[in-house]
Amino acid sequence: MTRTTLLPRAAVTLLLGVAAAAACTDNSPPAASTSPTPTAAPTSTPMTTTATPEPSAPSAPAVLTPDDTGRTVTLALGDTTQLRLPGRWRETAPIVDGTAVVLVPVDYETDPGFRAWDVRAAKEGEAVLRTPGQQGLRSLRITFQVG
Fold first, then answer.
1. Torsion of Cα atoms, 10 then 13 then 18 then 19, to 10°
2. Model pTM?
3. 107 to 3, 91, 101, 117, 120: CA distances (angstroms)
4. Where do the domains of the chain lie?
């Protein structure tokens, strides 16, 4: 067979394949349903109003630092944020007044330049995280609302 006879045969085979594929597809619209569609009769029901949801409290920042002194942070029960004390603050250990949050120390293999604690919302209520003031450092105070 020569090359000139193969080309027309390949073209015919391709066209037959395309035609067969087109015949296998169904592009017709779906058949209309002949059964009637039930509709509800209007009823008189009292108008009900739903309460407007209160705006959610802003989520707690992922990281708290001494710059957050004086701030009140709202956490949902089970949420966690992190306290980081850099520089000379690293020498102080934070104290929590209240049972709403628990401090969990974070240990790093290499020194990141700060000490860190996860602050976990453990119980509904209020807790105050504070550090005693040291010479040259102001005291830290952050209030946590858990609920």
1. 140
2. 0.59
3. 76, 15, 19, 9, 16
4. 63-146
For residue 121, the Cα-to-chain-centroid distance in whole angstroms is 18
Confidence check: pLDDT of 76 > 70: yes
Question: CA 118 to CA 80: how far, in whole Å?
Answer: 6
Measured at the CA of 124, the angle between CA 61 and CA 84, to 5 degrees, comes to 30
CA geometry: angle 78, 81, 85, nearest 5 deg:
145
**DSSP-based three-state secondary structure for 108:** coil
C-beta separation of 134 from 91 below 8 A:
yes
Q: Is domain 63-146 classified as CATH 2.60.40.2020?
A: yes
Three-class HEC string of 64-107: ECHHHCCCEEEECCCCEEEEEEEHHHHHCCCEEECCCEEEEEEC
**Would you give the DSSP letter of residue 121?**
E
Residue 53: per-residue pLDDT: 44
